[in-house]
Amino acid sequence: MPGRLLVVGGDAAGMSAAMQVRRRQPDREIVVLERGRWTSYSACGIPYLVGGLVDDVGDLVARSPETFRRDHDVDVRLGHEVRGIDLDAREVEAWDDEGGRTVRVGFDELHLATGARPLRPPLPGIDHPMVHGVQTLDDAVAVEARVAGARRVTVVGGGYIGLEMAEAFVRRGREVTLVEAAGQLMPTLDADVAAPLVPALEGLGVDVRLGTPLEAVEDGAVVAGGERIPTDLVVLGLGVRPNAELAADAGVEVGVRGAIRVDRRQRTSAEGVWAAGDCCESHHLVARAPVHVALGTVANKQGRTAGINIAGGYATFPGVLGTAVTKVCDVEIGRTGLSLAECRRYGFEAVEATVEGETRAGYLPERKPITVKALAEVGTGRLLGAQIVGTEGTAKRIDVLATAIQAGLTAAEVVDLDLGYAPPFGPVWDPVHLVARQLLRALVEGPERATGTLDRP
To answer: For the chain, does the N or the C end have fewer beta carbons within 10 angstroms?
Structure first.
């Protein structure tokens, strides 16, 4: 019989692996150490919980610890924070919060799914009690407890989580200030694509301050951009850092941004040690380079891959495009693949095209504007990346472009895609078709058009 599998981390990457092992090896001993109070939950749902669209924190839990114990014979131990890994002794050292003591747990194979943590810049007052991240359900509960007595909220960072949390607090009737060090929101997008987000947030009543870096946190205020902003609660949306120090300290190889290095089967550099999710690297399918992408979709897929392999099967995780969507007010945004700046960083020569289209046939009154930007490689015409912004009916179109990029399609092949058509869903020439046609024109006219916005054909 295979020996004990020890999983560190009870969310997507950890429990998806554990369940794959259980299905294939019904009698294997599986122990999960989770430092929090929940398993298999949707961290992406936290803004909707805070905003009141989700009634209870339990609604975000897909499978409870009790379900894993009772129905799947998985020994889930909550409140166990792993603080050290001894690969020679094949055991970990963990702090048992309930027991108030250090325990040692042995393993034959180890799966690391330790996730990531919100970035906390080394600034004065950053550890003040009113400063919170929103990475776990424990974070969500802490924010909920604080927001009840807060009138003014400051969100730091204008990325996905920052924008979603700003809207959530407005829904709760709070005065919200969002500070972003860059000159635009959503720095992973191009500035012109991200531009509609500022008026959308301001229309909700959010005080958006660009070019305003956080400098310090004080009692009852933050200092940002040289100005003191009164606040009762600070939420960090500056991105995340992989929780990979445990692995690195044990001698496991790490790579980009300190994330655990894994191969296509989610194996680490240490024998019998696997990793998946926000704590480890991914392979970028376009750049063909290691990247760190903290997304729930990636964590679930990597965890599944690891579990199949741990149980003696064979599976590979091919990589990522960084495809992501979100919605702020009625503005939907999506991105996939590389931006123009990223193309240059990875050595691609690319052309870029932008089109202004509509989400429905032009004669329907409910049609909405949509902007699609895409890039193609000079010489091959292969799609390298895309970004979309608009209102209802916009964001999920990014999936067509993500599929095209992953399949290695050229702009010419995207023009000929047999996409569904009916007036309520789009024009005869969908915006996806239109941007591909413009890319073809740019490829003919040369890469000097890469930074321009091309006219609609």
So the answer is: N
